[in-house]
Amino acid sequence: MRTCVPLHGPPRAVSSIFSLRSSARLAGPLQAAGGGATAWPVMPLHLQRKVNSGAAMLPHPDKAHRGGEDSFFISEHQAAVGVADGVGGWAEIGVDAGAYARLLMVHAKEAADASTDDVAAGTLSPQAILESAFYRTNVQGSSTACVLVVNGTTLSASNLGDSGFVLVRDGVASFQCPQQQHNFNFPFQLGSADSMSDQPQAAMRFDLQLQPGDIIVTGSDGLWDNIFAEEAATIASKCRDKGETATTAAQVLCRYARMRASDAKYHSPFSYAAIQAGYVYLGGKMDDITVVVSYVTLPAAKL
């Protein structure tokens, strides 16, 4: 199992990444569970959160025609976000490997959106969202999953598998959640009854204190196998400092991770993990890439 703190390898230079701005089109449409909305309705004052989120997806080139196998959600009140990564092995037996991840995130979004009272009280539970989504997902397949909730000044998370998140503070990766793997490249995963997968109760759970100005970067393993947490922190911070939206920051991170995935000589996080596991591997890892960026801001002023 590769843990993410401390981090492997030195920080990488990212001074040239802003040629990959959001003005460049992503390969394939932006997709979200339940529909990908980037403009959110104005919420009542008591429901306004201290977070603004945006997302981007970049499917594996060989899977772009079917939208890839990742999915994500952002709740209508933006108190909750999540990422899921469908296990590609199902395609070998004719099963849509992304179907489970997509339906899981649809149900997660529904559970988060329905928890209006919990949002107002600051008690929304990522574990409850994950379990509700799991028990309602009834298609064949399996998926990793990461669900995060902002409750006031607390970031709560449930992560199962090798998706995950980084908390960025003052431009630095202050925390990166560890991955859960049974063996190298064999992550924990939720799945249908015939998949012999893990239960949602096996998810790692975290509670972290937030500060205004923090950034949360949540991504599938297509992000974390190809860029280091320090790089993600620098990119997201520079995007926000330049006045870019969270959606733009997510798009830039997707493009940068794809560039790294295409570099056969790059000492990627995945290559470091492979070497630790006894394999000879150099380069990035081509995969679906999904990123959700969340800016933590000051709450709306009371009139």
What can you see in these coordinates?
The protein has one domain: PPM-type phosphatase domain (Phosphatase 2c, domain 1), CATH 3.60.40.10. The longest helix is centred in the middle third of the chain and has 16 residues, at 99-114. The chain has helices spanning 99-114, 116-121, 126-136, 221-224, 229-241, 246-261, 269-276, and strands at 51-58, 70-74, 80-86, 142-151, 154-160, 164-169, 172-176, 181-183, 186-187, 190-191, 204-209, 215-219, 289-296. Strand 4 (142-151) and strand 5 (154-160) form a beta hairpin. It has 7 helices and 13 strands. Helix 1 (99-114) packs across helix 3 and helix 5 runs antiparallel to helix 6 (246-261). Mean pLDDT is 85; it is low at 1-48. It is 24% helix and 24% strand. Keywords: Hydrolase, Magnesium, Manganese, Metal-binding, Protein phosphatase.
Structure characteristics:
303 residues, alpha+beta, Phosphatase 2c, domain 1, five-stranded antiparallel β-sheet, 24% helix, 24% strand
Quick summary of this structure?
Keywords: Hydrolase, Magnesium, Manganese, Metal-binding, Protein phosphatase. By secondary structure, the chain is of the alpha+beta class.
Radius of gyration: 18 Å
What fraction, in percent, of the residue positions are helical? 10-25%
What does the largest sheet look like?
6 strands, antiparallel
What is the CATH architecture annotation? 4-Layer Sandwich
Number of strands: 13
Number of domains: 1
**Number of helices, where a helix is a run of at least 4 consecutive DSSP H or I residues:** 7
Order of SSEs:
EEEHHHEEEEEEEEEHHHHE
Enzyme class: hydrolase
EC number: 3.1.3.16
Organism: Tetradesmus obliquus (Green alga)
Pfam family, one: PP2C
